[in-house]
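#structure-requests
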Amino acid sequence: MKHILFFILFFTAATVSAQTEFSTKFKSIPAPKFGAKPKKLPDPAMPDLNDPAAPTAEIPSIKTPNVYDNTKLTTKSKFQVGEEKSKFTMSTETEFANPGDRYVAKMEKDLDKALKDAGLREGRGTLVKHNISLGDFRTKSKYFIVKFRDFGAIDGDLVKVSNNDKVIQNQIFLDANFKDVKIDLSDGFNKLDFEALNIGTLGGNTAEIQVFDDKGQLVTNDYWDNLAAGFKASIIVTKE
């Protein structure tokens, strides 16, 4: 019993001594002291938007950059809306001309030629002012039959027929139907002349001539396209 009591007293004394020694050596670390956060002063150049009494100064606008103004990104076209177009052109048309007008003149010319070829129109075109040779022929025929008509419009064309300067038909009025003239051939040389006596009211003389032998074979033919008055077509025939 004495030993137990001694042990309790010894343990109590050791515990109090240890606590006293620890409390004298331990020092607590004080918490850091921070001063009050400094208040941000307002920029005098920028008014306080929350202050009703602040002056209403204009806020500078923010300009959105235009990427098309950057030549590194996009090359501007030379021809923008509202700019003048290039004046270089190889066309004689005006800016507001009908594109189809360029074909009108050619179409009218082609139509005029077709109508003339069909015998439906004549025109005051360039007159043919030279004689026409219809060729040289040898034949045993006793005569030739020459047919005349106006292959154009009927406008008063007149033709004279002669052989070796001898008048066979002084004046033939040409219309739409063929008119026949018989020419007797002399032995040897014969020069047949068909002369335009005038030009019609619509243009030059437009006679159509067909020459046949006594067997009805076509020897030669010709069309006068605006032959001038006083000129003629000739055929040389040698009768064997």
